[in-house]
Amino acid sequence: MKQFRFYDKETILQLTKIRRFETKLGECVQVITEAGEWEQALQQSDAKYVLFGIPEDIGVRANYGLGGTDSVWQPFLRSFLNIQSNDFLIGDDILVLGHFDFGDLPQLIDSNAHDNDEKINAYRHAVTTIDDAVESLVKVIAAAGKIPVAVGGGHNNSYPMLKGTAKGLHKAGIIPLAQINCVNLDAHSDYRPAEGRHSGNGFRYAEEDGYLQKYCMIGLHENYIPQNVWMDIVNNPFMDCITYEDIFIHQKRSFVQGLADALDFMEGQPTGVELDLDCIEGVLSSAATPAGLNSLHARQYVSLFGSAGKPAYLHICEGATRLEDGRKDESTGKLISYLVSDFVKA
After folding, report:
1. Alpha helices (H) in 52-115, listed in sequence order
2. Torsion of Cα atoms, 334 then 3 then 69 then 65, to 10°
3. Is the pTM higher than 0.85?
């Protein structure tokens, strides 16, 4: 795991603001004490949730997007570790593993590519490196009977999250085939053609490679569904789509009803829980929207699927605290800390 940086207790406490008469999550969460024997230590840990970061924006750049999704992990972690440990959430059920470090890949690609096409191809090739690294880690976590919780990066990481979790659950004998369901709260389907790996086609690759069984999309914006992708969705009985317009414009059903319908569609089977922050109005992301869901909807979503569903993992992506064009918003990290804590509490 040369691309992964494991955290020890000292690292966690450096990010935790210790205060007299209070206890913060950072004082309670578990860590791996020996990085060289992390797989064995993970097996022995009684933590249910394993939290790690994927601070990268290569998949977004490979999709002609705006870089910056590598910026949210540290602000999130600082906010999360300073949540109060109390009867609502103690924190000892969470193991904070660390984060991936893919070095200066974007800078190397930018400085060596001769034109934009070459740059895009290089980014897409680099995404496969990220795929392999994330899949390997997630497979070990899932095989240990724990729930991976990944924060940061682009939605390209949905593919290795699905693939690694499916393989891990199959290895553990929890599912007969290396194939799981997925629910995705998102403004976009991320089901574009398999033209080379990027943030817009993770679910297409997962389905074509046989790791995705049922896929339900909630909150898709009709304006951003390519016609060919729409036809693929409506003609596939293993896919369901509840658009933003169906809920909030045409009012065919309420948001909670939409969540309940998605839950029924999963039929109680292990389900990856995906949340793309570009669906939340006003949140800084690679594809920020002025018209979308609010933070309450997102919190209801992760809470419901964390409690009433059978969550296989949680993946929160596409958010940023600093974008390539100079825009900044430090509150994104705090929002994610709410979402992760809601999921764990559920």
Report:
1. 58-61, 73-81, 105-112
2. -170
3. yes
For the chain of 346 residues, list the mean pLDDT of each consecutive stretch of 10: 93 97 98 88 96 97 96 98 98 97 87 89 96 98 98 98 98 96 98 97 98 98 97 97 97 97 97 98 94 97 96 98 95 98 97
**Domain assignment of residue 77, given as a range:** 4-345
Count of CB atoms within 10 A of residue 36's CB?
10
Q: Are 151 and 80 in contact (CB under 8 A)?
A: no
Sign of torsion, CA 197 198 204 209?
Answer: positive
The confidence score (pLDDT) of residue 2 equals: 85
Whether 242 and 262 have beta carbons less than 8 Å apart is answered as: yes
Question: Which two tokens mark 247?
Answer: 């809920």
Query: Which tokens in the block code for residue 14?
Result: 């450096």
Contact 108, 129 (CB under 8 A): no
Instruction: Phi first, then psi: give them for residue 92, nearest 5 degrees.
Output: -75, -5
pLDDT recorded at residue 34: 81
User: What CATH number does the domain containing 139 carry?
Assistant: 3.40.800.10
Cα dihedral: 169, 161, 280, 242 (round 10): -60
To 10 degrees, what angle do helices 158-171 and 116-143 make?
Answer: 30
For residue 314, the model assigns a pLDDT of 98
Q: How many domains does the chain have?
A: 1
DSSP 264-289: HHHTTS-EEEEEEGGGBTT--BTT--
